[in-house]
Structure formats: C-alpha cells, structure tokens
Amino acid sequence: MRVLSITAALIAASLPFAAPAAAQESLPCKFPKRIMIVHGNNAVARMAIRQVASQITGKGMEGNNSGVLRGELRGREVEFTIRWSNGHRGFYTGRISGSGTLSGQNTDATNMRSQTTWFLREAVPC
Questions:
Q1: Residue 121 pLDDT > 80
Q2: Which helix (H) or strand (E) holds 49?
Q3: How far apart are CA 36 and CA 71, in angstroms?
Q4: What is the CATH number of the domain that holds 76?
Q5: Least enclosed by CB within 10 Å: which of 32, 33, 67, 88?
Q6: Other CB atoms within 10 Å distance of the CB of residue 46
C-alpha cells in the first residue's frame, strides 16, 4: 500500500513539469509577416502574411498578377491556395523542416498538369 501511494505522489509531482512541454509542442509555427515563394521555374511571389493561430491569409504579387492567399498550418504541414488576378489558382502543400525551411509542391488548380516545386526564402520558426 505504501509503495502505491509513493508512486502516485511521484507521478502527481511530475505532472506540472510535463504539461508545459506538451502544450509547447501544440503551438503553431509562426509565418514571417513578409514571404517570398520561389517556384521551381524561378517565378517569385512576394506576399504579406497575417497569421491567427493556425490560419494564414495574405496578399501579394507575382510579376503583374496580384493574389490572395488563404490556408492553414497543421503542426509542420501547410496547405494554402493563392487566387491570382489572371484567373489561375495555385494550390500549395508543404512541410516545415526542423531548421524552419518550408518547401513543397504546387499545382495550378485550373490546369492540373501544371505542377512545380516551391520553397520559402524565409525560415518559419516552430
């Protein structure tokens, strides 16, 4: 009986120290306020980003086209769509590495054969 109560006391004493680490892991990564998306074909989109919790939104330009970005972070995974003024709609998926590098795949939703890779010039801290 005494061993059981000592074990329970040790477990209870360790819980306050374990909770902050678990809570910290669930915090979303933080997008920079300004990003440059570099595509596999060397096209560069410059976007101003706003992040609220896991939701990301933004506006920007790629060449003469303006675009509106909407997406979401789920842990280190990211998905977003950019609706471009020329009618194209880019769908982006990616993953943030341990060093904060974000890269992935891009598909033009108006032409599914149009696909390329992309990465952010800026690090995304997690």
A1: yes
A2: strand 44-52
A3: 16
A4: 2.40.128
A5: 33
A6: 15
Place of tokens 């003469």: 64
Across 83-94, b (16+ Cβ under 10 Å) vs e yields ebeeebebbbeb
Question: Is 52 a member of any domain?
Answer: yes
Q: DSSP 3-state helix, strand, coil percentages of the chain (rounded to 5)?
A: 20, 50, 30
**Token digits of residue 90:** 């880019």
C-beta neighbour count of 42 within 10 angstroms: 7
Per-residue pLDDT tens over the stretch 81-90: 999 999 999 9
- The answer to whether residues 58 and 48 touch, using CB atoms and an 8 Å cutoff, is yes
52: domain range?
A: 34-120
